[in-house]
Amino acid sequence: MAKQRTRFPSDMLVLDRDASVPMHRQLYEKLRSDILAGHLKADTRLPPTRLMAEDLGVSRNTVITTYDTLLAEGYLESRSGSGTWVATLPAFAVTARNAVGRTDAPSLSTRGNRMVNQPRDRTIPGHIAFHPGYPEIKGFPFSTWARLLKRHTRYSQEDLYGYHWVTGHPRLKASIAEYLQASRGVDCDAEQVIVVNGTQAALDILARVLVDEGDVCWMEEPGYIGAQNALLSAGARLEPLRVGPAGWTLDDDTLLAPRLIFVTPSCQWPLGCVMRMEDRLRLLQVAENHDAWIVEDDYDSEYRFRGRPIPAMQGLDKSGRVIYMGTFAKTLFPSLRIGFIVVPPHLSEGFKRVASNTGHYPSLLLQAALADFISEGYFATHLRRMRRLYSERQKVFVGLCQRQLGEWLSIEENDAGMQIVGRFLDDIDDEMLWKAAQNQGVNFSPLSRLFFKNAPDHGAILGYAGIDLKAMREGIACLRAAFIEIEARRAPA
């Protein structure tokens, strides 16, 4: 018995001739989604390709391409002598599109829900880059970088295209270890260096390896959101290690005994203060007393403008409790996605296995080029140029802010870092100012987001490193307009 033909509803197909998506792709997506949603039922016969093309006002090749793709994927079937028909799909496939948003769908894991609900901080395309921690991109020697990449792409004598060296290219690990020993006083060799794809990957690995559900972790407050997110997602219980203009509060007897302590001692995020030597030694003693780990995030220690650089805390550690981490996102460019962890020797093998199992390792091609960039002196040259540039930009930026925003904002130069914290002189909600600034095309980070337990301070974390004088002036003028808007809202009617 012949199957009953269902009439094809040609009026359902509407294609947009002005869209950037090709016509055959639009037709494919429309037919496929209608089949999955059940709007086009099984045993519906499609018009011949010539008639379909005439109805839609497209070329016959467009329809043929679409039909062929849907036939290959099993959404349509060709019946000898009777044309092209909608195939009979399993019931779950037809209803799957309608199931989106169902309350009886499987839920996320506890860890997944924690991660989804954590705050995030990101750059916004098209907005002036007052985003903190954003480097100067235009000044990067891209021609040199391209040449190094080309060298390994075309003439590589190494195997850079397999699963080798999941903890890092040997030459890059050696270059990083040598650089850290000379510039940061880090006590390590190449085997202790684990190369990962960025800071957040490093934090994810550290949280997985060092933190169990319910473990107490001391987290700087205000402190880095990415570290908060990683630790909370691992089930940690965060205790606030308070930081203010005078430094870290290490004598807080209300804090529970820690399993892990996260700090940014060389340039505190976001305040920019530097931990004094006596406090570093005290913190090491605290970790010893509580049998705790210290994670030292040395994210932009290269940018110190006054005085001699203070060596990393890791170099003071005599009991193997400090795990050091760094990134090339601030010194080169963020999308490079290469960071590193330096672990005590007795943890090296375990961390290598975790890095391999999590897949948190960057392209070996990029690593080989970066190894050359460092070993051939380009990295040191670039750092010297950027250090001078950022020092000059900070002075100009602070001066402009003091003149243009001084009635609302207190802001001073820092000895180090790529961002400045401006504190409000009046009771202003920094989230409200942030929204007003977004409307003006300016991006910054509200200070209050970095508090997780105590009452937050309000202020603006303003990145200055990646913007030239013209953009600086424009951005500060827009930020002034945002302050004026907030002030007008608060004025009595």
C-alpha Rg (nearest Å): 28 Å
The poorly predicted ranges are none
Q: What's the overall average pLDDT, rounded?
A: 88
* Count of individual beta strands: 17
Strand content: 5-15%
What would you say this structure looks like, in words?
The strands form four sheets. An eight-stranded mixed beta sheet has the order 5-12-11-10-9-6-7-8, with helices on both faces. With 493 residues, it is α/β, with parallel strands linked by helices.
Outline of this structure?
It contains 15 helices and 17 strands. The protein has 493 residues and is α/β, with parallel strands linked by helices. It starts with 22 loop residues before the first helix and ends with a helix.
Quick tags:
single chain, 493 residues, alpha/beta, 8-stranded mixed β-sheet, 4-stranded antiparallel β-sheet, 17 strands, globular
SSE blueprint:
Layout: H1 23-36, E1 45-46, H2 49-56, H3 60-73, E2 76-79, E3 83-86, H4 91-96, H5 110-116, E4 128-129, H6 142-155, H7 170-184, E5 193-196, H8 199-210, E6 216-221, H9 225-233, E7 237-244, E8 247-248, E9 260-263, H10 277-290, E10 293-297, E11 322-327, E12 339-342, H11 348-358, H12 364-375, H13 378-405, E13 409-410, E14 419-424, H14 430-439, E15 442-443, E16 445-446, E17 459-463, H15 469-490
Parallel strand pairs: 4-15, 6-7, 6-9, 9-10, 10-11
Antiparallel strand pairs: 1-3, 2-3, 5-12, 7-8, 11-12, 13-14, 14-17, 16-17
Helix pairs in contact: 1-3, 2-3, 5-9, 6-12, 7-12, 8-9, 13-15, 14-15
